[in-house]
Structure formats: structure tokens, C-alpha cells
Amino acid sequence: MLIFDGDYPMAYGGIELNRDVTRSLAEVRAADGHPDNVAFACLPEMRRGGVAAALMKFTVRRKRKNSILQGLVGTAAVYGAARGQLAYYHMLAEQGEGAVLTDGEALAKHVDIWEKAEDWNALPVGFIIGMEGADPILWPGQVHEWFEMGVRVVSLTHYGPSTYAHGTGSEGGLFALAKDLLREMSSCGMLLDMTHISDESFFEAVNLYEGPVLASHQNCRALVPGQRQFSDEQLRIVIERGGVIGASMDTWMLCPWYTLDWSNTGGYKRRDHFRREDISLSHVADHIDHVCQLAGNADHAAIGGDTDGQGGIDGAPCDVDSIADYQLLVPMLEERGYTREDIEKIMYRNWVRFYADHLPAGD
After folding, report:
1. Quick check: pTM over 0.90?
2. Strand ranges (DSSP E) for the chain?
3. Are 173 and 99 in contact (CB under 8 A)?
4. What is d(CA 350, CA 344) in angstroms, rounded to the nearest whole number?
5. Residues 154, 193: contact at Cβ < 8 Å?
6. In total, how many domains does the chain have?
7. Is 363 within a domain?
8. Spatial CB neighbours of 200, under 8 Å, sequence gap ≥ 6
């Protein structure tokens, strides 16, 4: 079965962790200098696992007071670093490793090729490009420039306060420029990813933004307490707006008995609080099922891997050794009574439908 990974910050691994994602997973691991962040994805492994496409993220934060994660000091540096990560995806596409998909027709053709292929190993992986945290958009009107460069999804914030909104680990509403940014996003067709946004900012944003919303990698607060997850009210809003919610593989967001203090993430190690073997793909299936129960159907649940963005293997469920193991969700969902049609929706069709409906029409 094909897979659409709803969130993969590949540029983080390729640039910041200096990995050659065009090599096999074994080669990436052998060459890696990050023993605390063991890779579980690369382009050949995506093909092996039937991962036809992904929302490929780039993330650059501006450093400011109360920043939770590191960031860059100047706006020019933020903009330049983001352009570099975006260029990384375009170069992978030029090299034939991927295909940047900017319109619905291109996405439909790409998925059709993968569905009909007998061998995925020579196929390019589809890239829909997303910006995680809007700090690189230096003024609201600049979102049109990013759209012209192929970006199709933007989340307002990441960790802590950003230029436009409060994010994970901070509390508060939107900042002054957010209203104008949301208006410009709606006017050019840029899709709004609600992931990482604080509660107050969430409700303000959905009231201001008129376009389609999604939650690329977001789990359920009813199952795992804490601000990083969405409440049922927030999940229902995304569902009612026709959005899709990708279940994250991040074990911080899957451990039901531990709530992370996001103000000191640099000082926390997962294994101080739970063993890796305590969290499995069954927990991911729980969050998928919860979204389906809220919706009354399987049309809004999907995979939102946060693949390698959450700390590699150490931050993934114990039965995930590579991205190809996302396929293990298929028999788990079958055991829970999901039909083949509904499982296909969850594994890839829901994301394909959402983007095919809301990306621009082809030429």
C-alpha cells in the first residue's frame, strides 16, 4: 500500500545533520556523526516502503526573548537560511530524486504513476513543500514570493513565540502582523498548517483565515495531556473545515503518562521518563482512531510522521526501525475493524485528496 507522509523535515537531516539522503539507510547510518539521532528515513528507504510523497518541511526560527529552541539573530539570516533549505528540495528534484508538486494535476499524475508501477525503486518521491514556522516571511506580502518559489503550506509558528503567533511552550494570541499574513495567505492560496500553535492563537487564526486548514503532525490531547496536542474542540474545527490531521510518531506526543515541560526541552531525555519499548505504533493507531471517531468516518485521519524531526529512532515508536515500517499500521488498523478502503484513506488517500482539492489547478 502506498503511503503519504504528512510531515517530513528532510532538509533538517540533509543540511543541519549533514546526511546524504540519496544513499541507502545503511550508508546514511554508517556515515552519520549523530549517535543520539539515528536516522530512520532517506529517499531509497521511502521508495522501499512505498512512500510516494510527503509534505517536505523546512524550519528556520528567529532567536528572540523566551525562545525555546535555538534560532538565528537577524532577519536576513533567517530568510537566507530558509531559502537554502528550499533550494535543497529543488536541487533534489533537479537530480531526479524527487518531484516538486505545486498543483493538483501534478499530484494526481504523480500518485497515478506510483499506483500503477510494479517497481518503486526508480521513481521520484513527490515533494509538497511546507514552511514550519513563518519567521522567514519577513513581511506579510512576502508570502507571495514564497508561493512563487513553490511553497504551498505554512504554519504560523513552531516552538515558543514567533513573528506571527505563540507556539509550543508559550501561551498567547496572534501578534500584530498575523492578520495581514493570513489575509495574504488566503489571497494567494497558501494553505494554513495549524500544527504547533498555542490554543489562543489557534482560535484567533481559524476565525481570521478563510482558506483550507490542516494539521500536518498533531496528536490528541484526550489521549495524551499537554499543550502540544489538540483538544477535541480543536480537532473538530479542523475536521469541520475539511482538513486532515496527521498522527505524529514523536514519542513525547504518544506517552500518555508524561507531560513534557516545553520550557526546558534541551535538558530532557526521553529515557529519563519512559523506555522506548513502552511506546509502539499501537499508540499511533489510537490517535488515528480517535480522530476517526470524532469525525464519524475515516476521511480526516492520516500519517504525520515528523520523520527524523523528533530525534530519529530514539524518538520513534519501538516497532519503527525505518520509515518503511509505517506499513505496520495496515494490519493494526485491520485488526481494529477498518476496511481496506478506509485504511487506504488513512495511509495516503486523505492527504492526496486534500492537496488535490486545494492546490492550484494545473496549467
Report:
1. yes
2. 3-8, 51-58, 98-100, 125-132, 151-155, 191-193, 213-214, 245-247, 301-303
3. no
4. 8
5. yes
6. 1
7. no
8. 166, 171, 172, 173
